[in-house]
Amino acid sequence: MTDLQATGLAVNTAGAGSNVGQAGAAGAAKLLKGTFGAAGNADDAMRVVDATISAKALGKVASKASTGLGALSIGITITDGLSGKWKPHHTADVALGVIQTFCLGSGPAGWGIGLGYFIADAISQATTGKSITENIFD
Known about the structure:
This protein folds into two domains: 3-60, no CATH class; 61-137, no CATH class. It is elongated, with a radius of gyration of 22 Å. The chain is mainly α. 82% of the residues lie in helices and 0% in strands. Helix 2 (22-35) packs across helix 3 and helix 3 (42-83) runs antiparallel to helix 4 (88-103).
């Protein structure tokens, strides 16, 4: 069994018991111990389980960070709009920020859509000097 296969097995195994906490990790370790042969290499199994738990923790941190950054972006847009004259593109930016941050979620699908919009907006600003919403609404 390659390390990649063992990691995939650990992800699937620990994922099934992810809400069980340490009990889920212990169950994954038992299953992996049997996977690594009759003698079983508990050290290898525990390294795979530890890596799986670390990946899940990183995913939770990334999810919270993306939600926090989305909320910060909405706040900056509101501050920008209130410090000058509120324009229609501010309303559109706040609406898009709320949709991106709270409706699409902070998982891979939401990140992909957000990245696509970010790249398109950067291209718009580089070519026209204005954001997508400024070009559409102002």
